[in-house]
Specification:
about 300 residues, mainly alpha, MetI-like fold, two-stranded antiparallel ribbon, about 75% helix
Length: about 300
């Protein structure tokens, strides 16, 4: 093999690596490097000597697991986790239930204007989360909300959705309004991939549309339901935009309402970047463990059903 053919062979073999190089560099710079830096910060702390004034009075030293033990014993972080758990118990079932219902309705032959309806349901997902939270926040305010104006004209009580228990419903409504469309598209795409012969065989056997939906469509889109549930769990654990945006409108949302809000306050409000890094690592590990456990359970169930 001459030198020209050898260079051409090396160029063909190296082409895949050349195409992967930009993505690898971006992954290293914007994901791996920040994660590694956060881990490094979480094992360190600032030691203050004397009054903490002058050069050398504040030095960074090795802390070991001290930041992690402080984070796990922090009542504010645990309270925020419980609030997010209650928030997720409302958001995930309602959002996925509506997404599945809309997908089944759009997949029906009796539905008209399907492209327009599909776009109308998906459109809220295209609205940025901060903009959506501001929009709904002003709709919740009693003094400027048109809903409160109508209720007042009708002589009906005007509930304050930004105070107390209703706050969970107010925050959940924002998440459901914005996330249902995306999950609906994922499920609807899976429904459209089911062969028409399956439906024809079911109709010949006398199956009703409701039976087709419950016994054929839903079981066959189970992988999509698992995927949307997986994404919804991650989004719920990382809730930040909605409560942070509504915080100036009500006193019911504290700076530690969710775990990520507490991380932000400790890092940039109190200047405890090392403790905040440890909290962020704990949140990431919990998200990873829950996601891995759920996916493993779902895969085990699918294997058991396939073996039957």
């Amino acid at each position: 093999m001459n030198s020209t053919a050898r260079r051409r062979s090396y160029g063909v073999k190296g082409a895949p690596y050349a195409f992967l190089l930009p993505a690898t560099v971006l992954f290293a710079l914007f994901f791996a490097l920040p994660v590694g830096y956060a881990l490094w910060l979480s094992f360190r702390k600032v030691k203050v000597s004397g009054l903490g004034l002058g050069s050398g009075a504040r030095t960074e030293v090795w802390a070991g697991l001290e930041n992690y033990t402080d984070a796990l014993s922090d009542s504010e972080l645990l309270d925020g986790a419980l609030r997010v758990l209650g928030y997720g118990c409302v958001v995930v079932p309602v959002m996925l239930g509506l997404a599945l219902l809309f997908a089944l309705m759009l997949d029906s032959e009796k539905v008209r204007l399907t492209p327009f309806t599909r776009l109308a349901i998906f459109l809220p997902y295209a609205v940025p989360g901060v903009v959506a939270a501001l929009l709904w926040g002003f709709l919740y305010l009693p003094d400027v909300s048109p809903f409160h104006f109508v209720l007042d004209r009708l002589g009906l009580p005007r509930p304050d959705l930004l105070d107390g228990g209703p706050l969970y419903l107010a925050l959940s409504n924002i998440a459901v309004w914005g996330g249902t469309g995306f999950n609906m598209i994922v499920i609807y795409t899976s429904l459209r991939a089911i062969p028409a012969e399956v439906y024809e065989a079911a109709r010949l056997d006398g199956a009703t549309p409701l039976q087709i939906a419950l016994r054929i469509k839903i079981p066959m889109v189970a992988p999509s339901l698992v995927l949307t549930f997986f994404f919804s769990i991650i989004a719920t654990l990382q809730v930040y935009n909605e409560p942070t945006t509504l915080k100036p409108l009500t006193n019911s949302v504290s700076t530690t309402w969710s775990p990520l809000m507490k991380v932000y306050r400790d890092a940039f409000g109190d200047g405890d970047i090392h403790g905040a890094a440890a909290q962020a690592v704990i949140i990431a590990c919990v998200t990873l463990l829950l996601s891995f456990g759920f996916l493993r359970a779902a895969n085990r169930r699918q294997k058991q059903e396939a073996a039957r």
